[in-house]
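Fold it.
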Amino acid sequence: MSRLQSPEARLFLTSAIVLFAELVFIRWVPANVVYVTFFSNLVLMASFLGIGVGILLGRRFEPPRLPFWAPLLVITTLFILAVKIDFRPVLAGSVLAQLAASHVADPNYFVLPIIFVLVAGLMAALAMPLGPLLRAMPPLRAYAIDIAGSIAGIAAFALCSALSLPPPVWFATLGVALAARGGLRPSGGGSLLGFASVATVVAATIVLQAVVGDIWSPYYRITMFFPDNGAPFLAVNGIPHQNFYPLNSPQREAFYDQVYRWFPNRTFARVLVIGAGNGTDVDGALARGATSVDAVEIDPRILDLGERLHPDRPYADPRVREIVDDGRAVLRRTDQTYDLIVLALTDSLTLSSTAANLRLESFLYTEESLAEARDHLAPDGVLVIYNYYDQPFLIGKLAGMLNDVFGAPPIVRTYAGPRNPGAAFADGPGVTTARSLGDAVDHIDGAGALRPATDDWPFLYLETPSIAGYYIVVLAMALLIAAAAVLIAARIAGTELRRTSPHFFALGAAFLLLETRNLATFSLLFGSTWTVNALVFAAILLSVLAAIGVSARWRIRGPIPYVLLAASLLANYLVPPATLLIDPPVLRYVLAATLAFLPVFFANLVFTASFRDTRTADMAFASNVLGAVVGGCLEYAALVIGYQQLLVVIAALYAGAFVLARLRLLGDRDLAVAA
């Protein structure tokens, strides 16, 4: 048998394929059906469910010659393309008002379960070979190879993101990997079906991209529109996002220039714009006499479009310094002071990670972040925030947060709109010492009882700590589908459900929550960029490999791993992430990585100590993955209790896993005595 056809090579490639395919659909589905992003980990949970079901089915069926994944890949991709959202507004009236009136981005509760089922089915078909491969070698060896393959899958997709490669390349890469695994052989009907399926998907995405002209950044599907009688604008994930208005355009939103109307006789020399986008905010600062503008934009492709297409060419001005990074990370890292700091229209319309309810700007709009902006203001500096706020409570909430941070209420100007009221806020020493203002100020009561957004509870867009009813409905739907899928798969595979492991199920739920909390921690400490997320995932998997190595070298038994895990969780609870916001960044990284990844390491000592001795590696692994589906539902608890208290839920799940493990041992001893 050639090395490529060895069980180890096939397991490595299968794990890489499954992880790569998971990341492809996590990235591709919400970019085409934008309301899927409202349910942060729906595609992730569908992927975990599919992997678990695929392993269960693998107990009954050997890897089939007919590639079941092939027709499912075609059906899934064509369905996503069929329900794809591309909102094309008419020129008259407000784009956002038209969007709200059309309800085009409202969740479709008929489409959501179909997407969930299709993704789960496709992942199950891709993961079916995992079951026999996991049984083909010692459990720890199989687990180590699986993790190594997963790291390779992450690395491959990270490279695609770094190069801004479009979906046809993703799907072609998936097809090549399947061919290398042996899923597409040169002869036979199954191989022809597989080749035809990959070719169909690649062709469909190429044609669609050619027709629509999509540009794929690390965060968005970007589409440019060039109306005959208006300024060009770009849409992200099918939703209008930014207009390319010149400085003298009557369509330019009033809040861009509100601070200059308040202070008509003042020049802001040093300006920081966070959320610079295509350059409209930068353009305004330059026109009002700024001598230097630091323009921060997280998306490199949007910045490129601004450089090429903005009619006033603000990024070509030598006074402008472009910074491609997360805004909060820049605030933390810079040693500059500014006369004006602008938090521009930073509503990202996307999530920083599908494993957590965090948007790209979540940690930018917390009281701690506003305090960092305050600390970088000159003695007479001004902080300005403006945007559209479709929820009236947001204006009062932001006013209250600014009042808490600066010790004085902000000045506010609101702009009426039928569906999309806007507002501009200004606060800081330059506001409190101003003798007069050149424009009107609206009275906003920011002294209400709304909970402010903080680094532990970074949810600006929630009025109160709660889980919305539509979340509960979708999560209940996901759990019902998962339960039905597991029952059906177990019956087809001839496997009794009592052979699944509650112990490994609890470990899976706990570990997904631990992963979620680590992603939130590193997004806070180092920014919500895709590179940070990729590095965190890779570091988690490397911690898993380290734990496997320790378990292979030393047989750690009894409660010792649980004691070490409990101690590391307690340390994380007593040292909140905000206390690690220290310089230099290298020291911050060392401390944060040590604190955050010690629980990951000890959690995997717990897992590997149990997994090493299991007689049914595939059932244990399937139970663990299915537990992660429940962990994905429990992640929404952070909307109520915050990310620090999520550690309590994690600790409770691991305590339950320990009890279940002891009960299993007692049961095994009783059976041995009876025998």
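The two ends are 41 Å apart (CA to CA).
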